[in-house]
Amino acid sequence: MSRSLAGTQGGLDRIDVIMIDAGNIAAILLAAGQSRRFGADDKLLAELDGEPLGLHVARRMVELAAGRLIAVCSSAEGPLAHELGAAGFEIVSNPYPERGLSHSLAKGIKLAAEGGAEAALVCLADMPFVSIGHLRALLAQFDPENTPVVASDRDGTAMPPALFARSVFDRLQQGQGDQGGRALLAAATRAAAGEGELADIDLPEDLLRQR
Which UniProt keywords apply (predicted)? Predict the structure, then answer.
């Protein structure tokens, strides 16, 4: 359930701030990409600050205390899936990452829809610098009726992490290729992040610059 906090400004104007409780959302980590640009190695297992790259944003999702944690991995038996399972994530297997991001997104949303989640927070495993503060900022701007999609903003581009109301779950399951949620993001309310928070790791040199 969302919480509404009411106040006054100058004794005249009523201000309502609606924030969804983290316990009422499903947090979905997309971690089944092919990492073609990174080379032969699985980039999500590459070490960053002493642990696999793919665990960094996962830690922030755990800290958020979402009601449900879901991770879409290329294999439920892989090392990253085992790490995520130990952290409290339900693992969904996507053995066809070549079908694009939308295929992984649809699998995660399907599982979220089967429960009672009011919304789904979607994060990408190759974005290790997203802060807990930014995730909370997305929740703070959410309103299931007036702002059903809240996206992160990087240089004027709407992108994950993004929060989607249950009312758009069906649309999220119908995307194809790497277009999952793109149309919804285009019209989303946006939340700016701190410097460098929305950087992703595509190439080995991207990772080396962070070490």
Answer: Magnesium, Transferase
